[in-house]
């Protein structure tokens, strides 16, 4: 069901709603909205929330990754007049899931909903989602034994529909993603890739330390991180088409999704970053050899010069690939990228020295060149990963 909203202005809402006088305690419901370049959708979303959530004490938290279109400033200006609207502005960070996590952790409301900021989710479902979560144990629908932990707005049950997805390919991918998750993680639900759901804050507190926060599928992250079987209820809804603004999905979104599933299935023994760093390192070896071969074929430089140039080219290529893939959520741009490249090359130089020193020692100890070579390369690569993670991209390894 697509809701229609009378186009009241925010100023009219200020006058018409009891927004300035919330209850003495905190709000009952917090609606978390991740945004990147959604300025034109903010007012309409708040109007629709205002209409849908009559009689409920709610707040909305926009988590904006420093959108160039000024979404954060716009929300702040609204927040100055309506204390239900808050904004977390993240600088130098990107990522839908991690934005949702920060927004959810920022509230003290007992019920937390996550909804997209592009108006594709049907906010008129929120009261039913809240009622379902608030139902006392024993009063659930037949079959269920306890109050729900999570309520998911689902496109893949009963009257639900994914029709608003922009193409048939997107629809197929979305359904495939949901089925894959159903098989691989503890998520026996029809629409585990939904970005529209509501949960109790106790569940959030339980799972928060285990969340991966990569990519866009925060619901799967939550379902797969729960230490106990969850009581999940799905309510059907029709996904709307996007009217304003642009989709932020790109070719890496699918890769991030697979990495999230792999991290969840392996119970975090495997870190998506170290895997990507390793893959990029392997491409670096190919680049190094290809450039070396090319320069030797051209015949204009000797071997040492050719190998030096090839190593430099491989380092530069590794830096940019890591910046684009491994550290996509905190990508360095402009002068930061130039500084990052310098620090990456310096630290990789340190890794190379360590590689040689370890290999030499192991060779002296064992006399086995292959073991020595592998030991040196492994220690050097781990050191590169740890040091560049901390000093180049400012992340925990
Ligand atoms: N904070 C933050 N929000 C994001 C980011 N990427 C997307 N969003 C927001 O997350 C919501 C969903 O993003 P969309 O790009 O519309 O993705 P989608 O709805 O799955 O895909 P479409 O069907 O193509 O629109 C929107 O409100 C976006 O503004 C991000 O990197 N950081
Ligand atoms: Mg969208």
Topology:
Blueprint: H1 10-16, E1 29-35, H2 39-52, E2 58-64, H3 71-81, E3 85-89, H4 96-105, E4 111-114, H5 126-134, E5 150-154, H6 168-184, E6 197-200, H7 201-207, H8 218-225, E7 232-236, H9 251-265, H10 272-298, H11 303-326, H12 335-366, H13 369-392
Parallel strand pairs: 1-2, 1-4, 2-3, 5-7
Antiparallel strand pairs: 4-6, 5-6
Bound molecules: guanosine-5'-triphosphate (GTP) and magnesium ion (MG).
The site of guanosine-5'-triphosphate (GTP) has 22 residues, from β1, β2 and α4.
Number of β-strand runs = 7
Rg from alpha-carbon coordinates: 25 Å
> What is the subunit arrangement here?
single chain
Mean pLDDT: 88
Give structural notes.
The structure is a single chain. By secondary structure, the chain is of the alpha/beta class. The protein contains 13 helices and 7 strands. The chain has a 7-stranded mixed sheet, with helices on both faces. The longest helix has 32 residues, at 335-366. It is elongated and about 75 Å long. The relative contact order is 0.09. The structure holds guanosine-5'-triphosphate and magnesium ion. Magnesium ion binds at residues 116, 118, 120, 242, 247.
Write a short abstract of this structure:
The chain is an alpha/beta fold and 397 residues long. Helices cover 52% and strands 9% of the residues.
List its salient traits.
binds magnesium ion; 13 helices; binds guanosine-5'-triphosphate; 9% strand; disordered N terminus; alpha/beta; single chain; 397 residues; seven-stranded mixed beta sheet; Spore Coat Polysaccharide Biosynthesis Protein SpsA, Chain A; 2 domains
